[in-house]
Design goal:
Strand content: 5-15%
Number of domains: 1
Largest sheet: 8 strands, parallel, barrel
Structural class: alpha/beta
Number of strands: 9
Helix content: 40-55%
Radius of gyration: 19 Å
Number of helices: 13
Strand order of the largest sheet: 1-2-3-4-5-6-7-9
Order of helices and strands: EHEHEHEHHEHEHEHHHHEHEH
Length: about 325
């Protein structure tokens, strides 16, 4: 990759499902995108856990990661992220231990504490809500470190009497993900890599989170120094007007979610262009778009360089946007040229 951006680039793919598309086709496109990202020498390819969202087909990240890793050979593949409070930490250790045993040192386990869904769906996912909740997230992360053998076994037998197999000795690269200072502080205290979700929680929170991470960083068995990555929505087109037009479908989906409408698949470009945008909706979209990297190649490159400057991130993970696969792949190719 010969990009002028001074840090390695990776890809976060949301397994987007557009109107008229099946989940099977969306997943095939994600795997195809991963193959292209590998050809272009992107460092990582991550997928995210979401539930109950017709526009996103990655509700089972471990399964999808296995398919992507099998279709590629060198790019790192992982989760951006697994929403840990939705799961038993032992199950996640076994799943990602299995992926590591199958594919070697190519697997990343990015962990988040949000539900990745609405409250009702979350309540069904988390039937043992009295035992494992968002508040228990730090303990779950520590349990995972013990399951993988990264730290000593815990007093409750995790890592000694109770062993993850696969898991122990088959450790993926662990990351903490976040959109606030909470996960930034926790990642620093545990000495883990940190990835910040600027793509949906930008603004002043972004540099503050990185400052919190570095201020609280303690060297660990995994990291001697802080290592951080920033995520940004990205779309490259011939000019700004065309980029803004191609970004409309994703923008309309976000507007519907923001203003409490029922989740749908990503609308087509014609529907998004014909939509009767209110002033409040236009303002919401404009504010979000200004914080991301959407425009011609020069503008997108500059926006990413600016993010690296203000965050001092060691990596950037782009979230390609657009109404179709061709638009997303153009963004990846242009950035890598």
């Amino acid at each position: 990759m010969t990009s002028p951006i001074p840090v390695p680039l990776s890809v976060l793919d949301l397994a987007s499902v557009y109107e008229g598309m099946s989940n099977a086709e969306a997943l095939r496109q994600t795997i195809e995108t991963a193959k292209v990202a590998e050809e272009l020498d992107y460092r990582r390819f991550w997928v995210a856990e979401h539930h109950g969202m017709p526009a996103i087909a990655s509700s089972a990240p471990a399964v999808l990661i296995g398919a992507i890793a099998a279709a590629t050979s060198k790019i790192r593949v992982g989760s951006g992220g697994v929403m840990l409070p939705n799961h038993s930490s032992l199950v996640i250790a076994e799943q990602f231990g299995t992926l590591t045993a199958l594919h070697g040192d190519r697997i990343d386990l990015g962990l988040g504490r949000a539900p990745g869904t609405d409250q009702l769906t979350s309540s069904v996912l988390r039937r043992n809500v009295g035992i494992e909740t968002v508040d228990d997230f730090p303990n779950q992360v520590i349990e995972l470190l013990a399951w993988f053998g990264t730290i000593a076994p815990l007093e409750n037998g995790i890592g000694s009497q109770i062993v993850a197999s696969p898991g122990a000795g088959d450790s993926p690269q662990m990351w903490l993900l976040g959109s606030s200072g909470y996960s930034a502080k926790l990642a620093g205290m545990l000495g883990l890599p940190f990835a910040f979700a600027h793509h949906f929680a930008g603004g002043d929170n972004t540099p503050i989170a990185f400052e919190i991470y570095r201020k609280n960083f303690e060297p660990s068995a995994l990291l001697a120094q802080p290592h951080a990555m920033v995520a940004v929505n990205t779309l490259v087109a011939d000019n700004q007007a065309e980029a803004d037009r191609l970004a409309l479908p994703n923008a309309l989906m976000m507007v519907r979610l923001r203003f409490g409408q029922k989740p749908t698949r990503i609308p087509g470009l014609a529907e998004a262009e014909a939509y009767d945008w209110s002033d409040a909706e236009r303002e919401f979209v404009a504010e979000r778009q200004a914080q991301q990297a959407v425009g011609d190649l020069a503008h997108v490159t500059q926006r990413i360089q600016d993010l690296v400057t203000i965050t001092e991130a060691q990596e950037v993970i782009v979230v390609p946007q657009g109404p179709d696969l061709a638009t997303k792949l153009r963004t990846l190719r242009d950035l890598a040229a």
